[in-house]
Amino acid sequence: MNDRERFEAICCGDQPDYIPIYGFPGAPGMSRGCMKKTHDRLVATGMPPHIGGVYNLGSGGHDVESWKRYWGTTDPIGCGVSMGQGAQGFGVTTRIEDGFEVIESESGAVTRQVIDNDITYSMPEYVEFAVRDRESWEFWKQRMTPAASMPLEEMRERLRPYADRERPLVVSGGGGYGFLRGLLGPERLSFTFFDDPELIRDMMDWRLQRTREDLFPVIEAARPEIVQMGEALCYNHGMLLSPEQFHEFCGQYYQEVCDFARSCGTLLIAVDTDGNLMEFAEVATSYGVNGLYPCEVKAGNDLFELRRDYPELVLFGWLEKEVVNEGNESHIRDEIESKVPPLLKSRRYFPNGDHGIQPPATFGGMCEFMTILHEVCGNPEGEFPRV
């Protein structure tokens, strides 16, 4: 079997020749490398320095293929094609102030972050967001609406290399709540649901129209196995908005994306939720979403409960990423052996770390984690030393 066939087998509840260690967009677990300072730490503790997989924020990573060969992992391929072209966008300026990097956009957004944040495992401080009211939304919309559309023949030519693929293809459609939160910020968005719902509706109308024009033609032509939506709409106690608000403001977007993807033969419609997704599972599946990730452990997720309630749902992750950190290695075996075998038995599960690798990780911890995980999955891939 090839990667694509294994992926399809798992999503359909069938048994592949072995279970792959898959990484997915936004939350690759142990499958697609790590940020530079984490990579430096792995090399300092024993990983061969020629192994790639170093990535910065906003980049796809350097020589990820060597990481995947070494650690015996895999992932979908992305085509990176969108029909929209020629949006003006925004200029940005950066400066160092009081030991931090401050980034200002023409949109009015201001971000404060540690220096070298692009290679550091650190959350920036979002001082101000691009959309603050109706006026700033109209300005943002004017700057970000494409001026033209890619010719259909050019799109087809760019998609031609993926026609005979051996790995599943993913088209990232973006999200609803994630789109709103990224422009307004979570606090202002929470108030705006009540104070100016018409602004939210206008923003989601624009979002849906752009998806119809820019991504639906790509989905129709490419016939991807996966349509992915990045939301980060959950925190450690559940959703950041109520189910009722989600249905009211994001429901039409989800219904159209899911219906269109299904009409094009898409096998997996997956949402990157972050946080505790237990409440969101019922909301998402009502529209046709059939995959949720990364199922973070510390957020209180319970995949055994989700599997009982949603036997057709494709699940990912749920292995505590911190077990590979220095001092935590004694927890590795129990973390894997208590979860992975019963979830594999119930089918439709891709085991992996629950988000990404942290700076305290060690090469020894990674080797032990990957050794046990590959054994449990019957997976022969990888060049790393088994321990």
Annotation, overall tally of beta strands: 17
Distance between the termini: 27 Å
Shape by Cα distribution: globular
Radius of gyration using CA atoms only: 21 Å
Low-confidence stretches: none
* Main sheet summary: 7 strands, parallel
Q: DSSP helix count?
A: 15
What share of the residues lie within helices? 25-40%
Share in β-strands: 15-25%
Can you describe what's shown?
The chain has 15 helices and 17 strands. The chain is of the alpha/beta class. The chain has 2 domains: 3-88 and 131-377, TIM Barrel; 91-129, no CATH class. The strands form 5 sheets. Strands 3-10-11-14-15-16-17 form a 7-stranded parallel β-sheet, covered by helices on one side. A hairpin with a 4-residue loop joins β6 (100-105) and β7. The chain is globular.
List the helices and strands and how they pair.
Elements: H1 3-11, E1 34-35, H2 36-44, E2 54-55, H3 64-71, E3 77-78, E4 84-85, E5 92-97, E6 100-105, E7 110-114, E8 125-128, H4 134-144, E9 148-149, H5 152-159, E10 169-172, H6 177-184, H7 186-195, H8 197-214, H9 216-222, E11 226-230, E12 234-235, E13 238-239, H10 243-263, E14 268-272, H11 278-285, E15 291-293, H12 303-309, E16 314-319, H13 332-337, H14 340-346, E17 349-353, H15 363-377
Parallel strand pairs: 1-2, 3-10, 10-11, 11-14, 14-15, 15-16, 16-17
Antiparallel strand pairs: 4-9, 5-6, 6-7, 7-8, 12-13
